[in-house]
Amino acid sequence: MKILTTPRLHRMWEGTWVQFLLGRNFHPVPSDRVADLLDPNNQFVYIGSSAEVCAAADYFIRSGVNFGAIVLSDELLRDECQYIKYENCRFVMRNYVHPTLINEKKVSFFGLGYKTNFCKYLNHNSHLEREFIWNFIGTPHHVDRQQALETFKAIDGHFIHLTEGFGSADSLHISRYAEIINNSLYTLCPYGHYNADTFRVYEALEAGSVPIVPRNAPGLDFPVSYWSWLFRGEVPPFVMASDWNEAREIVMDDLGSGRYIERMELCQLFWRKWKLQWRYDLLSNLDALIHIH
Fold first, then answer.
1. CATH number of 119-274
2. Can 2-110 and 119-274 be said to share one CATH topology?
3. What would the pLDDT profile of 100-121 be if each residue is shown by its tens digit?
4. Sign of CA dihedral 144, 150, 156, 159
């Protein structure tokens, strides 16, 4: 079996995360050459953006080879993975839960993960070693993010660094970015351009900081919450609220009662479980693809 990936994977935010999910025994080969996609004696997995996976799937379907797909970066949910209707498409795993694909048996979802090389700068500080109550590092590019910041400024002991855009020149170096999250009890995680899910959620979890998230993003109202679908009905232990005032009250209650320590510990256990669950899901799909007769 060949695992092919977009040549851009090493530059994509989630490159290290994808390799973690694949484990040590599977190493993707960067390629977009047609010759690599048309070997009828092989099975394939292609990893890339929705457009790149769609293009590769077209070659796989026409050549009749069995394949799986790992779809990244479809925040706007434009890709309904139409290739799943073909028998030789054996599985699709994608980040960003897509409401039209929730009941598709071939499709499963996983979290966005963390920025490439983020983990190597973490010290995994205990709650006693953390300097900040909460942090936000990013772009206040819509009203909801601005409201989140204004609401949480009522809680002292925060760190805020605002940037012009995703990955812009005024962004913190990854080492400083990791240091701040590693030194915060909570990390404010408002929704992105369209979706409730953001890389910041998983970077907080990886650093032992508690994410503060909205239940849903406007215009994308999942029953119960976005997170209930991503985590298959399990209620995550991080702070999840319908609005930022409710979220602030939860955090203030945590701080006043000392429950923030328990919440941090529960988030760490929860994150270890789901990292391994998503890795198991992927490796099980790969194993099933290898053993097709």
1. 3.40.50.2000
2. yes
3. 999 999 999 999 999 999 999 9
4. positive
Residues 237-260 have pLDDT tens digits of 999 999 999 999 999 999 999 999
Separation CA 152–CA 136 (nearest Å): 10
Helices (H), the chain: 15-22, 50-63, 143-152, 174-182, 199-206, 226-230, 244-257, 259-290
Contact of 37 with 57, CB cutoff 8 Å? no
Could you tell me the CA-to-CA distances from 184 to 147, 192, 205 in Å, in that order?
20, 21, 11
Return d(Cα 182, Cα 172) in angstroms, integer: 14
Which residue, 206, 287, 271, 231, is CA-closest to 23?
287
pLDDT in tens, 68-91: 999 998 999 999 999 999 999 999
Supply 175's token pair: 């080492």
CB 27, CB 69: distance < 8 Å: no
Cα 137 to Cα 161: distance, rounded to the nearest angstrom: 5
Asked if 131 contacts 186 with a C-beta cutoff of 8 angstroms, the reply is no
Tokens of 232: 């298959």
Q: Is residue 74 a contact partner of residue 49, using CB atoms and an 8 Å limit?
A: yes
Following CA atoms 114, 165, 246, 133 in sequence, which dihedral angle do they give, to the nearest 10 degrees? 60
- The CATH number that domain 2-110 falls under is 3.40.50
Question: What are the structure tokens assigned to 87, written together?
Answer: 């028998």
Please answer whether residues 44 and 69 qualify as being in contact, where contact means their C-beta atoms are separated by less than 8 angstroms. Answer: no
> Nearest-CA neighbor of 287 among 61, 26, 39, 84?
26
Q: Where are the domains of the chain?
A: 2-110, 119-274
Beta bridge partners of 211: 187
